[in-house]
Write a structure and sequence with these properties.
The complex is a heterodimer of chains A (about 550) and B (about 300). Chain A contains 17 helices and 21 strands. By secondary structure, chain A is α+β, with helices and mostly antiparallel strands. In chain A, a hairpin with a 3-residue loop joins β8 and β9. The chains are: A alpha+beta (about 550), B mainly alpha (about 300).
């Protein structure tokens, strides 16, 4: 019986005199509160904004971009790994060089006009002159030194960015020449610097007292001061308004006002785009693709993202799911129809994973066997692992609702497949908050987690956090993996580095550290009269050269 | 009357206290550590611990609860875990948007339901009655989230007449109001129709007709008084629902109200905002019902407080 029917029954009883008005109120009030609160508890969805919006002003060059991920609580670019924030930072901050194509080894100049590899541990950069921060302060080598040293962990301050870097010191040759130095060779430095926003030294300069944070840091958390094409003018929790930087060194943007807004419900985002209340939206779900593809006023930019969706495994799980028991994981690999999941559920530009690196990332090499769906081989591998009977062992799997596209359906398809193999799958569907809590719980519940990991496409970013010990997310502790990642990162010669990471990919595939499922589709939809928008597999979305025609 | 108001006020405080207490513990018992959500992947346990200390979630639940109550008594709903914005300020900003949508919806719903319901009751089994019942059946079986999307498709996307999302001005009220109205009307139409049919069959109606009272006076004075009084309770409950934040509708139309605020806060485990929004919803709901009781007493001479 639904809520309306309950009320109707109560109402009829009241009219018939079977219950008193007070009894009616008591019963219905309970229900009535439920109307307000139950959907709140039941849904892990939308958003809040206590404000009245102004209509879009297209003639004035206003562009509204609706995104699918919430912003974090800080503008400090070195202290988070939130994809949405990294993307919006590209509009406000500059980096020394940029990646603007699908080939991540192709770098284009940013605040550095040119650079030279002096030796294995030194890069000399010639900086751009005449650049100013949004607050009018001139950009110099001191800003590069303060930014890179702080971000990379070369100062006393701990940063998130430092986790994917090595401490990098900056020697100032003159106001517009610097040398970046690492204690040992660090090959991923180019892709890491390409995503390292340069801040004003005044905002982050260490104070004389090491225990006191820099004076400008608190301001930086709410008022980002970059040299980028747009400057932040309004900083609501879910809505960021930027204005064009008229003095931008690479030419002022045509878009005068750029709005990034978090609306988690994909249907609401779609409605807004089709009704002309937004110009761009991202993370188009597969069910919306036909509608958008058939609309003559809409264009799509689709990429296979540098995002690996896996069944993450606790690499420190107890038997029978211990890391050494690879045969059980082979049974899972043979037993999941990954191609069917991609074709029927995830769709778009998603692809079945052929390696643990992103399929189109640096040094990615398809691995063998390809693990096409084969129930017989799955059953054989399970029996070989010591579990010939149906219903054993139990396979604890956590799925997440409202996060990955069709995440619940994919998890259910996996359960169905693995049940045919003979596993007893214990599926628990929860929301993002709960799955993160579970992942880090000291009790270590669950063994497999249906989650994703996105990166800039370099093996360092794609693999280190997950598989290098101490694996905070996975409990990784494998000396071979550690050695190969460390050696690969320390090898500057590209071909040698490729060979090392090919060896690592083969090792990861052989040991099936995670069950690789697919690489995500990353599709952006935009109105046709918005030109010049750049969207890349690393989820970079650049509006600088975009324009409404 | 004043003792009744005092008594009801105390009851309301108890209800609200119960709601915020249940909410306080429920949101904390659901898995999902806000400190973990706020920090980066791989953050050391030491930093997570410091974040918990900063948020106050490291303390025992009982201590957190006592602190929460102390702040509540002072009118302090705390600050959001995200953005450090005072919750009271955010709630007070969102409430008028919800109230505006709720008020418009309730006026239209009530007027239309009474007109259709009375019309149907006056001529049972007539064409109007049958149309009304078909409408009721269809509307009752139509999920509001589906209806909202269909209305957007027709009036915003195809025809381009009305905004699909946001609160941009009077035109923005049209689609969410229609969606809410259609979902609320069936129950009220049925109740009005049934109430009037029953009242029209009462002896006092026949007596009135015998005394030569006009049909209009009979209907809008005598019958209305008898039939409408129980309906006030129903209208009050529906008003409590929409004024307390029609969550699904606010989500579909990206309406910057209290329901939407609660949803996001739950997703992000923003405890103070969840508590603040649920408190606001509880207060609105109990107040509306209190007003309904007072209206009841004013209209029905048999009810004495």
């Amino acid at each position: 019986m639904n809520q309306a029917e309950i009320l109707e029954v109560l109402s009829a009883k009241l009219h018939a005199g079977e219950i008193t008005r007070r009894q009616f109120m008591q019963a219905a009030a309970f229900f009535g509160l439920g109307v307000g609160i139950a959907p709140v508890a039941a849904s892990a969805a939308p958003r809040q904004r206590g404000r009245t919006l102004q209509p879009l002003n297209q003639e004035a060059g206003e562009v509204r971009f609706l995104i699918a991920e919430a912003f974090p609580d800080t503008w400090d670019p070195y202290q988070h790994t939130i994809q949405a924030q990294s993307r919006i930072q590209e509009q406000i901050f500059d980096t020394l060089w940029k990646i603007e194509s699908t080939d991540i080894s192709q770098l284009t100049p940013g605040l550095a006009e040119s650079w030279t590899q002096v030796d294995d541990v030194t890069i000399e950069c010639k900086l751009r002159q005449g650049v100013t921060f949004h607050n009018g302060q001139p950009f110099t080598a001191a800003d590069v030194k303060a930014s890179i040293e702080r971000a990379s962990g070369a100062t006393a301050e701990e940063t998130v960015k430092a986790l994917s870097m090595v401490p990098t010191t900056v020697e100032i040759i003159d106001d517009f020449t610097v040398r970046l130095k690492t204690a040992e060779p660090f090959a991923p430095i180019y892709t890491e610097i390409a995503t390292l926003p340069i801040l004003s030294a005044a905002d982050i300069q260490p104070s004389s007292d090491p225990s006191t944070p820099p004076a400008g840091l608190e301001t930086l958390k709410t008022s980002p001061n970059g040299t980028g094409p747009f400057r932040l003018v309004s900083n609501e929790k879910d809505r960021k308004v930027m204005e064009a930087n008229p003095n931008y060194w690479d030419g002022a943007p045509t878009i005068q006002t750029l709005i990034w807004e978090y609306i988690i419900d994909p249907q609401t985002r779609l409605n807004a785009l089709l009704a002309g209340q937004a110009h761009v939206l991202d993370r188009v779900p597969p069910e919306h693709l036909p509608v958008l593809q058939s609309n003559p006023n809409i264009e799509l930019i689709s990429n296979t993202g540098f995002e690996n969706v896996n069944l993450w495994m606790r690499m420190d799980a107890p038997p029978p799911w211990d890391y050494a028991n690879v045969k059980l994981r082979e049974a899972i690999m043979w037993g999941i129809d990954r191609q069917a999941i991609v074709t029927a559920l995830v769709q778009g530009a998603s692809e079945v994973s052929v390696t643990h690196l992103p399929n189109h990332g640096l040094y990615a090499k398809p691995q063998e066997p390809a693990y096409t769906f084969d129930l017989e081989r799955a059953r054989a591998a399970k029996a070989e692992a010591g579990f010939p009977n149906d219903g054993e062992p139990e396979l604890p799997l956590w799925g997440v609702a409202g996060f990955l596209p069709r995440g619940e359906e994919v998890a259910e398809a996996i359960v169905d497949s693995l049940s045919q193999v003979g596993f007893k799958v214990a599926l628990q569907i929860t929301d993002v908050a709960a799955i993160i809590d579970g992942l880090f719980s000291p009790d270590k519940p669950g063994v497999f987690f249906h989650l994703s990991w996105s990166s800039n496409g370099d093996p360092n970013a794609a693999l280190k956090t997950l598989y290098h010990s101490p694996g905070a997310w996975t409990g990784a502790n494998d000396a071979t993996i550690d050695e190969l990642i460390d050696r690969g990162n320390a090898t500057v010669d590209q071909e040698q580095r490729r060979a090392i990471f090919e060896e690592l990919q083969a090792y990861l595939w052989q040991n099936l550290v995670h069950i690789p499922l697919y690489n995500s589709d990353f599709t952006i939809a935009h109105v046709k009269n918005l030109t010049g928008l750049i969207a890349l597999p690393n989820f970079s979305t650049r509006f600088h050269k975009a324009a409404l025609t | 009357m004043s003792s009744y108001i005092l008594q009801r006020t105390i009851q309301m405080v108890i209800v609200i206290f119960g709601v915020v207490t249940v909410t306080f513990f429920a949101i904390r018992l659901v898995p999902g550590d806000p400190a973990r959500l706020m920090e980066r992947p791989g953050t050391s346990e030491e930093v997570i611990k410091q974040t918990r200390q900063r948020l106050g979630t490291d303390k025992p639940l009982s201590v957190q609860y006592v602190n929460f109550l102390k702040d509540l008594v002072r009118g302090d709903l705390g600050t959001s875990f995200r953005g450090n914005r005072p919750v009271r300020e955010a709630v007070l900003e969102a409430l008028p948007n919800t109230f505006a949508l709720g008020a418009v919806t309730m006026v239209i719903t009530t007027v239309l339901s009474f007109v259709i319901g009375i019309g149907a009751a006056l001529r049972p089994n007539s064409l109007l009655d049958r149309i009304a019942l078909v409408f009721v059946a269809i509307a009752q079986a139509t999920p509001s989230y589906w209806l909202g999307v269909v209305l957007v498709l027709i009036f915003s996307i195809r025809l381009g007449w009305l905004p699909a999302i946001d609160l941009e001005g009077p035109a923005s009220f049209v689609l969410p109001t229609i969606t809410l109205t259609i979902s609320l009307m069936p129950l009220l139409i049925r109740a009005v129709r049934q109430g009037f049919i029953e009242a029209l069959g009462e002896g006092f109606v026949r007596a009135g007709r015998a005394r030569g009272l006009s049909e209009r006076r009979l209907l809008f004075v005598h019958v209305m008084k008898v039939a409408a009084i129980p309906l006030i309770t129903l209208v009050g409950l529906e008003a409590g629902y929409v004024l307390g934040g029609a969550v699904v509708i606010e989500s579909i139309f990206n309406w910057p109200g209290i329901g939407l605020m609660a949803l996001l806060a739950i997703q992000q485990r923003d405890f103070p905002v969840v508590q603040g929004t649920v408190l606001a919803i509880a207060v609105v709901f109990t107040l509306v019902n209190f007003l309904v009781d007072l209206t009841y007493a004013a209209l029905d001479p048999r009810v004495k407080y």
